[in-house]
Amino acid sequence: MKHLLLSLLCLSLFFCAKQQVSSQPQADLKSSGSSERQDLPFWDGKNEMLRGVAIGNGVWNLQEYANIAINDSDDYVRLREDGFNAVRFYLSYKFFESDMNPYSYKQGGWDFLDRNIQLAQENGIKLILNMHVPQGGFQSNAEGGALWDVEENQKRLIALWREIAKRYANQTTIAAYDILNEPVVSKGKYQWQKLAQEIVNAIREVDNNHLILVERMNAIIPNNYSNDSEMNFIFVEDPANKWGLTFHFYSPIEYTHQYASWSDAFRDKDGGRYPDLGRNKASLENEVDSYLKIAQERNLPVYLGEFGVIEATFNNEKGGLVWVSDMLDILKARNVSFTYHAWVDGSFGVKGRSELESLFRNKFFGRR
Questions:
Q1: For 304, which of 108, 131, 268, 338 could close a Cys bridge (C-beta 3.0–4.6 Å)?
Q2: What pTM, to 2 d.p., does this model score?
Q3: Domain architecture of the chain: domains with CATH
Q4: What is the pLDDT of residue 27?
Q5: Which residues of the chain are under the pLDDT cut of 50?
Q6: CA pair distance 153, 289, nearest whole angstrom
Q7: Residue 363, pLDDT score
């Protein structure tokens, strides 16, 4: 997706050169719900796989709440009819507060969220609230260092999550709190470890009901995208014992983002076909399993928050539908809950792309 693209150097480091993935398939890896922690396979103790899409809400370009358009109720109906039962709902701190008036929360932001909770509930869809743009800046492009270097931004983020959790502690339409999208820290992994723990502590002061999702560290500014032995995941203490891991998957990046018009890295680059030259279902399985293995070892729920391919892969026999189909097979076999990026997006969207929408309906959800 265009707002998550990094520089060519960063991308190649992140997804290619530094990836620590076994060369042999992990055939003995069990599904994420196969460990002893059967009381919490993903989100609330039900043996239900969440299968959904992301709703972006224009968080990357948002200047103030007034720019938000209320989501169309028809979208939730269509999601239900397609067979989706979950939405990763992107939030910006600007929905709720301004930099000029921190800790003073806007009623309009709560009204917007309440409206979407209502629409989701009416259509049997669970929401995963994701803080996509925190105080201090959007993380994915390594431009959000102010979150880590300005302590006040961390305090504001912690306070905002506490307020969200307080308001929605008993709201069953919300499946989970995904506390920060793609953290890119300024100094080291310990920064995300500390902040994540403080957010968990604040949420648990007011809400012991919801699952908390903690994403792996994405990178260290400016361009360290290497993985450690735990695939950059961090681990928190949760008195409610309701937390899990989440990760994103766009591999191989040169394929999934080929000809991206907004990126110098990929604008004129042919990223090849799928399957081809080592790109196949087995290679995807290997890489996905390298993430799932960490969750299994720790006996934690795990969720794939984002994956997808650009529109160019659906043309000229590039194999985009095959990539998505293989990913769905992999996730279904392992009982891994997921949200595809995204429902509406000019380059990665599902809505209106009939062949992709049909793939979800017919192949995965068994609908026509």
A1: 338
A2: 0.87
A3: 2-364 (3.20.20.80)
A4: 31
A5: 1-40, 66-67, 367-368
A6: 35
A7: 67
